[in-house]
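I had to read the description of the data format several times before I understood it. The format is easy to grasp once an entry is in front of the reader. For illustration, here is how one protein appears when written out as sequence plus structure tokens:
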Amino acid sequence: QQKPHVLFVVVDDLGWDDVGFRSHEIKTPTIDELAGSGVVLDQYYVQDVCSPSRATFMTGRYAMHHSIVDWIPPASAYGLPLNETTMADDFRAAGYKTHMSGKWHLGFYKWEYTPTFRGFDSFLGFYSGGEDYFKHISSGGYDFRHDPEPRCGANCSQVNWQQQGQYSTTVFTEEAIRIVNDHENPDTQPLFLYLAFQGVHAPAEVPPSYVTPYENTIADPKRRTFAGMLSCVDEGLKNVTGALKARGMLENTLIVFTSDNGGPTTTGDG
């Protein structure tokens, strides 16, 4: 029997009540459709900040065991311990092609801590925890990378200047679509795609066209911007699942959709 493709989607700082099928405030038709046709885990919990959850997603282990118990600051000389096996490692061992698009935030102070040394065949995104959605600046430095092959370190990893000025949610969506479209022999070769959106993490930034639909329904301008950010994520998910459908892969794809730590109560944008 053919192994299923796996699409693992992480939305950063998404709150329990932000999705449309719960609050009906923000339009998330793609997320709502996945919830309606799938299984909603109503006793499912993540850590209270991002890096511990992401380390747990990758390893299947509690934070007390993988040792990442808080978010990893930008200038940190540590990351997910190198003796940990990631799900990308296991998927690759099971014969999958493994690709990542989006936010890493599990360490990058040595090449060995970056995604293509942790089981991924390719990576496009940023290594740190948060940055400007358009300028891709994090703590004063430009953090946008393209690592096109396994174990892509020095003389391979590329600073992705070409997409400076482009909105990251759209960039990560387009990379995921490219991966799906370029995937060879989908009837026999399984795909593992880890799509870790930057949205809806701070800062509150989104192209104005995504905010306009909420002008008459959400009074708070901060919440309205947040709604636009989430709508852009939902549109991206629609486009990625559409690409899977066009390739005849969707019906044999297991889709996991999760937040990393829920909505922040004091520092969020929504």
